[in-house]
Amino acid sequence: MLRTRTEALRHIWRVNRCLTYHNQEKFSAVSVSQHNFGCLSKHNQDSLTKHNLAKFHSGSVVRMGGRVSQPSPAIHQFINEEVSKNCVTIFSKTSCGFCKRTKRLLDQLEVPYKSIELNCRDDGPLIQQELQVMTGSSTVPSVFVNGQYIGGSDDTNRLQKEGKLLPLVRQCMP
């Protein structure tokens, strides 16, 4: 049972499906899955809904304890380095079905890839936020081939069905 707002925020960050970009200026919490929301007492549900969990400013992420973090140039550099040094890079989460589907496709095609699991990293929320700024997509997986963002799971599968994925991969393979 999640009893405090801090515990709820911590749990929600782990689930990481509760935020959406809103009006290009704020982040606001829009929904928590029924399972997770059901873990909160009625008082905390009302409190979290009433306050939208927290007010977020563009480029900020609320960390545990209510501290606000800004993505650093180091996060942007990390993403660029990973994307440039790997033929295929997937920014993923271990519990994401779409991520698993994308990795399964690449495994079936015997395409080597680097997977960066955001939910296993302390800076995962900041990386995901920076990916949103870079790609326009707030969801995972974020798939890069030959240094170019190709999209998420549906985009990757579509490229494969159209016969365009392997030619893209072959451009960067030795």
Automatic annotation (TrEMBL):
GO terms for cellular component: mitochondrion. Belongs to the glutaredoxin family. It comes from the Eukaryota. The keyword Hydrolase does not apply. Keywords: Disulfide bond, Electron transport, Redox-active center, Transport. GO terms for molecular function: protein-disulfide reductase activity. The keyword Heme does not apply. Residues 88-150 form the Glutaredoxin domain. CDD domains: GRX_GRXh_1_2_like. This is Glutaredoxin-2, mitochondrial-like. Transmembrane segments: none annotated.
